Each structure stands twice: as C-alpha cells, then as structure tokens.
Amino acid sequence: MKLFLKSALFTLVAPGTFADVIPFLLARDRTAGTGATLVLASLLFAAGVALYLRCAWDFAAFGRGTPAPIDQPKRLVTRGPYRYTRNPMYVAVMTVISAWATLFGGALLLTWVVVAFVIFSQFIRHYEEPHLTGKFGEEYTAYMERVGRWLPRRVGRGSR
Question: Is-contact 86 148, C-beta < 8 A?
C-alpha cells in the first residue's frame, strides 16, 4: 500500500505538472471545444490516464517501486504496456497533454506537446537508459533491442 501512496504523490507532482498544471495555465483563456472535439479530447484523456495508472500499478505490484527516480522499481518491468514500448508512462502523459490541445486548440498547447516530448526524450536518452543499463545490464540491453523507445516494433526489427 505504501508504494501506491508514494506513486500517487509523485504522480501529482511530476506528471501532474506536465500533463495538467502547465496545460491548464496555457488553456485558461481559451474556450473548450464541443461536440466531436470534446468527445475526442475525453477519449484521449481517459486513454492517457488509464495507461499511466496501469504502468504505475505494474511498477508497484511487479517492480516493487514507483515512477519516482528516487524510488525506482527493483525489478525491470517488461509486462503490460512495457511489452510494446519502453516508455508508456511518457506516452500516457503526452496523450493527456494532447487531450488538452485537442479540447482547447491553440499553438501554445500544441507547442507544449512538442516541448514535453523533447524534454522526455532527452531525459530518457541521457539519464534513464544509461541508468537502467547500469542497473539491469544485459536484461535491459536485450529489452532495448526487443522493444521500441516510443512505438511498438515490427517482429524482427532490431534497431533502437
């Protein structure tokens, strides 16, 4: 239970800032879309939240850790969404930001999606991947060869 509470606290602070606080500030003077736009934004939001919660569950239940860099999983999580992409939590956060951009439109929100992607990409390349390679060694290296950083790979594709 403690891992789930720590995960929730971290989620409110870090992903919550990227996916909700900053988009809210960028959208505060804009009018929300209606009709199909509202439906699409709601679906994106629900998908992003569901994906993030599933990943946080796997981190706690299987990996025995949290999404927070100071309390990472003790075991490499390669199940659930991690079978298809190495970074589904980041995909989830960007999906929620995309929901905001869909609902409120505007160049600033679309720019925030791109900026978040660049920030996440740099963090992953320069911190997470080297750290996880050091922590899990060959297990992580083999995982990187099997599973794409962002998108699922076709069978037999071996590039990063």
Answer: yes
